Amino acid sequence: MRNVAVIGVGMTKFGELWDYSLRQIFTMAAIEALEDAGCSNRDIEAFYVGNMSAGLFIGQEHLGALLADNAGLKNIPAMRVEGACASGGLALREAYLTIKAGEYDLVMVGGIEKMSDSPCTEDVTTTLGAAADQEWETFVGLTFPGAYALIAKAHMERYGTTKEQLAMVAVKNHKNGKNNPKAQFRREITIEQVLASGIVADPLSLLDCSPISDGGAAVILASEDMAKKFSDTPVWILGSGQASDTLALHDREDLTSLKATRLAAEKAYTAANMGPKDVNFAEVHDCFTIAEIVATEDLGFFHPGGGGKAVEEGLTEVDGKIPINPSGGLKAKGHPVGATGVAQVVSVVEQLRGEAHKRQVNRAETALTHNVGGSGATAVVHIFSR
Amino acid sequence: MRNVAVIGVGMTKFGELWDYSLRQIFTMAAIEALEDAGCSNRDIEAFYVGNMSAGLFIGQEHLGALLADNAGLKNIPAMRVEGACASGGLALREAYLTIKAGEYDLVMVGGIEKMSDSPCTEDVTTTLGAAADQEWETFVGLTFPGAYALIAKAHMERYGTTKEQLAMVAVKNHKNGKNNPKAQFRREITIEQVLASGIVADPLSLLDCSPISDGGAAVILASEDMAKKFSDTPVWILGSGQASDTLALHDREDLTSLKATRLAAEKAYTAANMGPKDVNFAEVHDCFTIAEIVATEDLGFFHPGGGGKAVEEGLTEVDGKIPINPSGGLKAKGHPVGATGVAQVVSVVEQLRGEAHKRQVNRAETALTHNVGGSGATAVVHIFSR
């Protein structure tokens, strides 16, 4: 099978981008990725874009063809893929597989969401609820913070994870975000501030939650031949894994772990012929602080129940044993839901190229991205090396 | 590269399915496809589902994981793909490419839409408008029938296509639908009735338009080894092609032809090493009567401007030179938008197996499906043989 590399990356600043429409935001990211790859819009053979809910947010479906056209990718195969907040990671995986299939040599992968300034939804929380089970959860009042609060409660009950440990995830990710010029939040916060912030869904406070964001990201994938033609610093995709689980939490075997993450990681590790110990750093899906702790356990970096203690001991800091979310993560970088999985790849590529400046991790040879949809019904994991 | 076959098909009756929810509708189609393939839910390795707008219709995104779970496809990679009304065809193409890539051997492809009984939209036309360009078309009042009316006007002006010829498409497809037990409309209509039906968007009358439908379809794709293991009547996918165009009509080079269809067909014909003359019959995207006429020209069955005359001469009847939409097409079979591209495959497989009963075409060795998103911004074409 053919090898596949990332040869170009681009992303907009994440945040409340009131001055730009969805198509404008994506086009900025796409142009940056094309310039970074040193290739022309006319070289791109196909386009995959991850987006969760432009239909509900701005009344626009059919983003594949729309954004391809706006980015100057005329007449090529273009499609949107969706798996709630994992949409970006799924788009990456589809592009990767179609290059492996020999169908294309050069593909653009996009991720986009415009969540503020939405004329079509009364509130963003309702739209995000469309990622949960409408009949069994959303309709009867469960919100997304509520779903993760249940996970947090179960984790605290079983393993003794503390609210302070959750807060430490937010503190670390804000510290990292301060050094990321494209992050939505670029200020440090304290444990006390997290604990004192208003309760959203007990035990999660406002500063345990990732923000509502606008943003776009794009990466260019290439077959081995094309990668060598266009790039001196290709970043290789060594493995890709995806899995699913029930949308509704009540159908899960366990609330303290996401089975879809464990299965997706197992596939990605097997494909890459690696284990968790071989990964130098990771961008994981910290939509809530508890989600990062659970992810670091499910990905095998720490034993079940060990994620809280690991944060407390500083193991996940930029200079720790296994840096987690050196970009600031969803918590501080921002979480335009469909864009997140692609933005994680942008962050990983910057690190593996040694271009992450103040947030650069010491050892950056192999990296992992972990993108989750809903409260864990979709998970997709990729492993990269320079 | 590995060969890929369709080994099982299933679909619900199309129509107003007031007694069933989206997930129930899809599960019925999935079970029928599994039974038809003779394989178990546990044999399926991945799931792709085409859906245009469950978010706007029923407030539910994240259909990949949701429907996989409901169909008993536990924990496997599951994702939704979207390209407006071409979503089903795109799902088929992704499954096909990932089997070619060697990633999977047995994949379920689904298509689903629940358009009636929608608690979330004021009217279906608004939601369907999300397939057009929100900023340049829908927002300023263009509806979908309006977009195709512009195409019809241009075609009539340039080629002399008549309202009677448009009506003949509807009459033929209703005649075919009468013989399809799963069609929404199973009654014949006359040219006079079509011409006398109320104008929706001049020159398109009510009976020139496909209906609003609920429905689901599912097919099982297999690698060559698995196809031979499970099936005595595999239907091979010989070629797949996809292309895109601008969403907004005003940016197109020409209104009388869909460039995306021409490009997608060219790719599919090249891959299959065939031309239009080698195709025995086709299921094409007749969301409006004019769309079938334009499609038969763009697919190369008739010369540009010859589609109207061809219908008039009976060339596209079930016993004609090149039967078009022997299933009844979108017009009579129904058009649950995300399901259509997969339902076309169900119809083609029934014909190629010789199991189409009263609607069986005489020569059924090779067939083509043509699925369009929006007013032509996405097109996907597949070629099949028994």
Describe the structure.
The structure is a homodimer of 386-residue chains. In chain A, the strands form two sheets. A nine-stranded mixed sheet of chain A has the order 3-2-4-7-1-8-11-10-9, sandwiched between helices. A two-stranded antiparallel ribbon of chain A has the order 5-6. In chain A, α4 (87-100) crosses α15 and α8 crosses α12. Helix content of chain A is 38%, strand content 18%. Chain A is globular and about 55 Å long. The two termini of chain A are 19 Å apart. Chain A has two domains: 4-120 and 213-235, Thiolase/Chalcone synthase (Peroxisomal Thiolase, Chain A, domain 1); 124-211 and 239-385, Peroxisomal Thiolase, Chain A, domain 1 (3-Layer(aba) Sandwich), CATH 3.40.47.10. Chain A is built from 15 helices and eleven strands. In chain A, a hairpin with a 2-residue loop joins β5 and β6. The relative contact order of chain A is 0.20. Chain A has helices at residues 22-37, 54-58, 63-70, 87-100, 124-128, 134-138, 144-159, 163-177, 191-196, 224-230, 259-272, 289-298, 307-312, 329-333, 340-352; strands at 4-11, 46-50, 78-82, 106-114, 199-201, 204-205, 214-223, 235-244, 281-283, 366-373, 378-385. With 386 residues, chain A is an alpha/beta fold.
